[in-house]
């Protein structure tokens, strides 16, 4: 199938040819025809499968083919969970709208608010934004969404995990009219919060699911190594850095403190490593990302702030120095490599502290994982045994004591908590996915 077969405008086809995109990816084949018909879409597909063009092309087509509802308001709004991802979508948009009057503005947290007010005053047709900052502009009345034609949510599940539900609903309310088209992309469509927000924001959407997001990613070679303790992890990492033939590498750690510590250590060894964390100010974040993209640094050490969406073609290796807390995040982290048909390597270090997360990942991927070792660095840790089930011992009947009568009605008594182990197993267990309501993470000073 060619882009020609999807009903796209010839002007877009020639742009795509110019960009050396000749064949639509699977998600593009499925989503573009529905998108250009003006229907709502709820879609999920693997990392690196070309979702950005799957929503930007129908949006551009609308610019070419349809009259605006109003003259002033943005026509297309794209929301993403992180500023870095918003920038990347914006960059992709620029490759499509260059030389057209369909200009765009990038509205993310951490940048000067007044500059953004000025940019919005120029009535851009596209706005690419993080939800927190866009909601602030609505509050401030620097933009209005009454004329919005297309609302696009990229990585919707992540936006919800970061605690942006209120902002998303606020934005939806500001653009809540019958003729609005909504496209929602999410790594998973089963996430309880996604189901709920999708049913409120989408109108009879076409559901598209191209492969499971946890599906074995054949372009990414995944390896897992057991480690005894932090020093052992460090030794394994050193060896990997010595022996692996990498182009650029992203190392994920659990916390910002680990990120800093590891970066300092790598720099002491004269390796070109740089740290990125959500707590940095925006100028720093921008500089780091643009330097990394320009290959000034070989290694980016980061937390999950960089796990979603980023597309840097030279990343050949992803290392999980610590396992991610949520199993889906594993799929996103390793998805920073093996993009657009390239090959990639993902190596995860699993110590006693990572064991529970590792088991969650194993269950999520629905495969039994074998460990590999590095010569001379084999450890002792072989995994933790599942906690033994407590035996129920029947108590001998003692002398009967009359229980004091509670004056509280039974309904007010605190509910007995469900055994946590049981709950965890249930959520990731055998093919049965029980939508799990998650506590929102703090938006890591991100995208306010
Ligand atoms: P996703 O959002 O699904 O993770 P992206 O939209 O970031 O994926 O795209 C991943 C990479 O694939 C990008 O570098 C993009 O330029 C490239 N790409 C997208 N569509 C195509 C296509 N039809 N042919 C070749 N490369 C493509
Ligand atoms: Mg993406």
From TrEMBL:
Pfam family, one: Helicase_C
SUPFAM superfamilies to which the protein is assigned, alphabetical: P-loop containing nucleoside triphosphate hydrolases (SSF52540)
GO cellular component term, pick one: cytosol
Annotated family: Belongs to the DEAD box helicase family.
Name under which the protein is recorded: RNA helicase
Gene3D superfamilies hit by this protein: P-loop containing nucleotide triphosphate hydrolases
GO MF term set: ATP binding; hydrolase activity; nucleic acid binding; RNA helicase activity
UniProt keyword Endoplasmic reticulum, yes or no: no
InterPro entries, per database record: DEAD/DEAH_box_helicase_dom, DEAD/DEAH_RhlB, DEAD_box_RNA_helicase, Helicase_ATP-bd, Helicase_C-like, P-loop_NTPase, RNA-helicase_DEAD-box_CS, RNA_helicase_DEAD_Q_motif
Keyword list, A-Z: ATP-binding, Helicase, Hydrolase, Nucleotide-binding
Bias-annotated ranges (Basic residues): 388-398
Disordered, as annotated region: 388-448
Domain Helicase ATP-binding: 32-207
Domain Helicase C-terminal: 235-385
Domain DEAD-box RNA helicase Q: start-end pairs: 1-29
Keyword ATP-binding: yes
Residue window of motif Q motif: 1-29
């Amino acid at each position: 199938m060619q882009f020609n077969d999807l009903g796209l405008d010839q002007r877009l086809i020639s742009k795509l040819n110019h960009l050396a995109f000749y064949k639509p990816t699977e998600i593009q084949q499925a989503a573009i025809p529905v998108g250009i018909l003006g229907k709502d879409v709820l879609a999920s597909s693997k990392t690196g499968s070309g979702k950005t063009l799957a929503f930007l092309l129908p949006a551009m087509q609308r610019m070419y083919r349809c009259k605006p509802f109003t003259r002033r308001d943005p026509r297309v709004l794209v929301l993403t969970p992180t500023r870095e991802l918003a920038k990347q979508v914006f960059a992709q948009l620029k490759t499509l709208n260059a030389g057209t009057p369909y200009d765009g503005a990038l509205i993310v947290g951490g940048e000067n608010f007044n500059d953004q007010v000025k940019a919005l005053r120029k009535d851009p047709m596209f706005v690419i934004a993080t939800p927190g900052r866009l909601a602030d502009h609505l509050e401030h009345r620097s933009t209005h969404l009454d004329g919005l034609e297309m609302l696009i949510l990229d990585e919707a599940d992540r936006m919800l995990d970061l605690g942006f539900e209120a902002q998303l609903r606020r934005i939806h309310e500001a653009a809540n009219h019958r003729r609005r088209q909504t496209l929602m992309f999410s790594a998973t469509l089963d996430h309880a919060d996604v189901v709920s927000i999708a049913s409120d924001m989408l109108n009879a959407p076409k559901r598209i699911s191209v492969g499971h997001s946890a599906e074995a990613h054949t372009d990414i070679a995944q390896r897992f190594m057991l480690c005894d303790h932090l020093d052992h992890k460090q030794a394994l990492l050193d060896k990997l850095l010595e022996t692996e033939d990498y182009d650029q590498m992203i190392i994920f750690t659990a916390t910002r403190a680990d990120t800093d510590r590891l970066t300092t250590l790598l720099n002491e060894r004269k390796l070109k490593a740089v740290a990125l964390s959500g707590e940095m100010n925006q100028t720093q974040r921008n500089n780091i990302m643009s330097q990394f993209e320009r290959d000034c640094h070989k290694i980016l050490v980061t937390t999950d702030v960089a796990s979603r969406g980023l597309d840097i073609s030279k990343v050949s290796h992803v290392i999980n120095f610590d396992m991610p807390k949520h199993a889906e995040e594993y799929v996103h982290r390793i998805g920073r490599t093996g993009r657009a048909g390239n090959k990639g390597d993902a190596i995860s270090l699993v110590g006693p502290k990572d064991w529970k997360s590792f088991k969650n990942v194993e269950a999520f991927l629905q495969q039994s994982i074998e460990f590999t070792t590095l010569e001379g660095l084999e450890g002792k840790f072989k995994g933790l045994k599942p906690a033994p089930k407590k035996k129920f011992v029947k108590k001998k009947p003692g002398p009967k004591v009359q229980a004091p009568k509670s004056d509280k009605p039974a309904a007010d008594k605190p509910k007995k908590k469900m055994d946590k182990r049981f709950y965890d197993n249930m959520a990731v267990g055998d093919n049965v996915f029980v939508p799990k309501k998650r506590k929102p993470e703090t938006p890591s000073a991100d995208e306010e």
